[in-house]
Write a structure and sequence with these properties.
- There is one protein chain.
- The protein has 363 residues and is of the alpha+beta class.
- The protein has helices at residues 49-52, 76-89, 97-110, 187-202, 247-258, 313-327, 344-357; strands at 21-27, 30-31, 35-37, 56-58, 61-65, 71-74, 123-132, 145-154, 165-169, 207-211, 219-222, 226-231, 234-237, 262-265, 278-283, 287-296, 301-304, 337-339.
- The strands form two sheets. Strands 1, 2, 3, 4, 5, 6, 7, 8 and 18 form a nine-stranded antiparallel β-sheet that branches. Strands 9, 10, 11, 12, 13, 14, 15, 16 and 17 form a nine-stranded mixed β-sheet that branches.
- The chain binds pyridoxal-5'-phosphate and 2-OXO-4-methylpentanoic acid.
Length: 363
C-alpha cells in the first residue's frame, strides 16, 4: 500500500477524491448487495424523492490512525443507529447496523492509503448517505432508496484546530422547530441553517448559535455541533428536542463524569452565558472548538471566554482525553473504539481484494 502524498498538517475540512465508494439499492422491499464504485457520480431519477421532497439523511464519522499503526473507529454503531432514527424521521427504508458496518469496513479497507498519518491532526472522514431514489410526484415516501458511503481525508472543521472561535447568536432565522426534524441528521436542517451561517461568516464569525425556535430564550444548536458550557466543575449542555444527539457530546459527558465533574443536560437560558467559565462547540467535525466570544446582535452584548487567547483548562482536559482515546494514545476504558485491523477488517480486506479483482465489471 502506497500512502497518498498530501500536506496532511494543512488539510482543510473539504472533499478530496479517493479511490472507491460503496453503494447499495433498496428495491421491492429489500436491500440488494453492496457494490463498489470508483465513480464520484450517481445516476439519479429526475423525480427522485430525495431531490424533490428532502427524503435524505447522512452521517459523519472518522477513522483515526494510531501511533501503533492501527486504524480506529469511534462508536460507529451509534452513527449506524442514528441513521436508522433519521431514516424513520423522514419515512425512509433504514439501513441495518450490520450492513452499515460492512460498508464501513469495506470502504476503509479500499481507501486505506488516504488515512492521514498519526500526529497530523487530520483523519479520514466517512460520509454515509441515504436518499429516496424512486420516482414520485405526489408527496409520499419513495419505494426505492439508495445508500452510499464515501470517504475523504480532512483536517479540522474550524481553522486552527483547538484555537478558540468567535460565534454569533442567530436572531433572524430558525434551523429547526421543536416538533420538526432538528433531531435527525437530514439535509433539510442544514439547508435551513445556511442563511444564518453565511450571515455569521459575513460578519466575521466562524459559527452561529441558534436559539430555541419557540421562545428564543434558550441556546439550541451551535452550527454543525452541540453547545456546552462549563462552570463550578460542571459540564452543562442543552436539552432540546430540536438538536442532534451528538455522539461526541454523549462521550464528553461520560468523560467529564470520569474526571469528577458534574454534568447537566438542561435548557440553557441566554443570560446564563455570563456565568460560564468556558464554552465550546462539539461534534465529529468540530471535535471540541472552544469559544472565545459570543456576540448577541439583539443586545449587542459580547460574552467573553479564553481572555488570554488560549482554550480553557477544562475544555483542554476533555479534548485531550477524547482525542487520546480516538487515536489510541490512552486505553479505551469506555469500550468505544473498534480497531479496524482485527477481525472485521480482515473480513473487509479479503472481500475488498476480491472486489478489486472484479472492478472492471463494477460501475
Ligand atoms: N449537531 C449537528 C447539527 C451536527 O451536524 C453534528 C455533526 O454530526 C453534531 C451536532 C455533532 O454530532 P456528532 O458528535 O455525533 O458528530
Ligand atoms: C459532523 O460533525 O460529522 C458533521 O456532519 C458536521 C457537518 C460537516 C455537517
Amino acid at each position: 500500500m502506497v500512502m497518498e502524498k498530501f500536506d496532511w498538517e494543512n488539510l482543510p475540512f473539504g472533499y478530496i477524491k479517493t479511490d472507491y465508494n460503496i453503494r447499495c439499492v433498496y428495491k421491492d422491499g429489500k436491500w440488494g448487495s453492496l457494490e463498489v464504485s470508483s465513480s464520484e457520480y450517481i445516476d439519479i431519477h429526475i423525480a427522485a424523492t430525495g431531490l424533490h421532497y428532502g427524503q435524505e439523511a447522512f452521517e459523519g464519522l472518522k477513522a483515526y490512525m494510531g501511533k501503533d499503526g492501527k486504524i480506529r473507529l469511534f462508536r460507529w454503531e451509534e452513527n449506524a443507529r442514528r441513521m436508522i432514527s433519521s431514516a424513520e424521521g423522514v419515512k425512509m427504508a433504514a439501513v441495518p447496523v450490520e450492513m452499515f458496518g460492512e460498508a464501513l469496513f469495506r470502504v476503509i479497507a479500499l481507501n486505506k492509503k488516504f488515512i492521514p498519518p498519526y500526529g497530523s491532526g487530520a483523519s479520514l472522514y466517512i460520509r454515509p448517505l441515504l436518499y429516496g431514489s424512486g420516482a414520485e410526484v405526489g408527496v409520499k415516501p419513495s419505494v426505492e432508496y439508495t445508500f452510499l458511503m464515501f470517504v475523504t481525508p480532512v483536517g479540522p472543521y474550524f481553522k486552527g484546530g483547538v484555537t478558540p472561535i468567535n460565534v454569533m447568536i442567530c436572531r433572524d432565522f430558525d434551523r429547526a422547530a421543536p416538533l420538526g426534524t432538528g433531531n435527525y441528521k437530514v439535509g433539510g436542517n442544514y439547508a435551513a441553517s445556511l442563511r444564518a451561517v453565511i450571515a455569521a461568516h459575513e460578519s466575521g464569525y466562524a459559527n452561529i448559535i441558534f436559539l430555541d425556535a419557540k421562545e428564543k430564550k434558550y441556546i439550541d444548536e451551535c452550527g454543525p455541533a452541540n453547545f456546552f458550557g462549563i462552570k463550578d466543575n460542571t459540564y452543562i449542555t442543552p436539552k432540546s428536542e430540536s438538536i442532534l444527539n451528538s455522539i461526541t457530546n454523549m462521550s464528553l459527558i461520560e468523560i467529564a463524569k470520569s474526571m469528577g465533574m458534574k454534568t447537566e443536560r438542561r435548557p440553557i437560558p441566554i443570560e446564563e452565558l455570563t456565568s460560564f467559565d468556558e464554552t465550546g462547540a462539539c461534534g465529529t467535525a468540530a471535535v471540541i472548538s472552544p469559544i472565545a466570544k459570543i456576540f448577541d446582535p439583539k443586545t449587542n452584548k459580547v460574552y467573553e471566554y479564553c481572555k488570554d487567547g488560549a482554550p480553557g483548562p477544562e475544555s483542554m482536559k476533555l479534548y485531550n482525553k477524547l482525542v487520546s482515546i480516538q487515536t489510541g494514545d490512552e486505553p479505551d476504558e469506555f469500550g468505544w473504539v473498534t480497531i479496524v485491523e482485527k477481525g472485521k477488517r480482515q473480513k473487509a480486506k479479503d472481500k475488498s481484494k476480491k472486489i478489486e479483482k472484479q472492478r472492471d465489471r463494477i460501475i
